[in-house]
Amino acid sequence: QVQLVESGGGLVQVGGSLRLSCRASGSIFSINTMGWYRQAPGKQRELVAVIMSGGDTNYAESVKGRFTISRDNAKNTVYLQMNSLKPEDTAVYYCNVNGIRSVFRHFDSWGQGTQVTVSS
Fold first, then answer.
1. Parallel, antiparallel or unpaired: strands 10-13 and 114-119
2. Mean pLDDT by 10 residues, the chain (120 residues)
3. What 3-state DSSP class applies to 112?
4. What letter does residue 92 receive in the DSSP assignment?
5. Closest CA relative to residue 92, chosen from 3, 6, 2
6. 3 CB contacts (<8 Å, ≥6 apart)?
7. Contact indicator for 37, 93 with CB cutoff of 8 Å
């Protein structure tokens, strides 16, 4: 199985910054998209940012200009730099990675989630 390990969450004050990372490991032949989702209590999980294999990115309107997603293909790692954090950014953040396994089968894996709390 392809497993994802997330890190970088924590408690930060309004206007602060955090950098999340997510490393994929396992029998990976290639990775297509890598993205970050978040879910706040009582709300549906939403897409925060995604980066495609060619480097193109998409962001939720609520985070544009504040968050930056990037990837290191050599390390099978995706990052989310979060600046100018707001209380509404408080949520559990989940990493998602999909691609092709070494046995030429598609995979779609999720991280365990990391808590981000922004105090007001």
1. parallel
2. 96 98 96 97 96 96 98 96 98 97 94 96
3. coil
4. E
5. 6
6. 24, 25, 26, 109
7. yes
Residue 54, both tokens: 């060619």
pLDDT at 81: 98
Exposure of 39 by Cβ count < 10 A (0-12 exposed, 13-18 middle, 19+ buried)? middle
Ramachandran class of 26: left when φ > 0, alpha when ψ lies in -120 to 50, beta otherwise: left
CA-to-CA separations, 12 to 16, 69, 73, 86, 106, in angstroms, rounded? 6, 19, 29, 9, 37
Cβ atoms within 10 Å, residue 72:
11
- The secondary element (H helix, E strand) that includes residue 85 is none
Does residue 49 contact residue 57 with C-beta atoms inside 8 Å?
Answer: yes
Residue 5: closest CA among 78, 69, 72: 78
pLDDT, residue 1, reads 85
Q: In a 3-state reduction of DSSP, which class is residue 67?
A: strand
pLDDT given at position 15: 98
Supply the pLDDT for residue 120. 87
